[in-house]
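Hey everyone, long-time lurker, first post.

I ran two proteins through the pipeline my lab uses and got sequence/structure pairs for each. Pasting them in order. The first:
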Amino acid sequence: MMDWTDRHCRYFLRLLSPGAMLYTEMVTAAAIHHGDYAALLEFDASQHPVALQIGGSDPVLMAEAARRGAEFATKRTVRRMPHGSSGGSCRMPASDAVGG
């Protein structure tokens, strides 16, 4: 859910359901690689359990993004729990889905 499940939304959802698994908004691997990944990966320890969602088509960039997410989470939390978990999506390109 790009531009929706930001840290403010996750905080609100955590108030509603203390034990639910929360997910970050989808962050592209390229944005983590080229941008301010600390700002993109920011979360509060009270949001646990939370999973980092990484999108992209380059496996090397996605692996790097997952490593950065794990390193960032390790620095931000007392326990080693890199965003709870991380996952990537494998989907067909939109042009294939629409145009065949």
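...and the second, right after it:
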Amino acid sequence: MPVPKRKVSRCRRDSRQANKGITPKGFYLCPECTAPLSPHQACMTCGYYKGRKIFNTSMDRALVRTSAKAAIQETKAAKEAAAEVETK
């Protein structure tokens, strides 16, 4: 295994590492909801990638649940109303 022949001075070591600075990450805005995104990533807030819906978000699932609950309540109310009419 190779071994360094001489000690690397602090100046030489630090000069070499000075060019490894942190660069800011690039980002862009989602065209659907204008949320900031990393490049080549699907939007986690709306579920779109390149203008297509890729996955359902938690908000989408919540809307489906509330509409399903409302439909169930309407059918229960209709059945109760029908039962009241039959008993009279």
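Reply from user beta_strand_b:
Welcome! Quick read of the second one: The chain has two domains: 25-55, 57-88. The radius of gyration is 31 Å.
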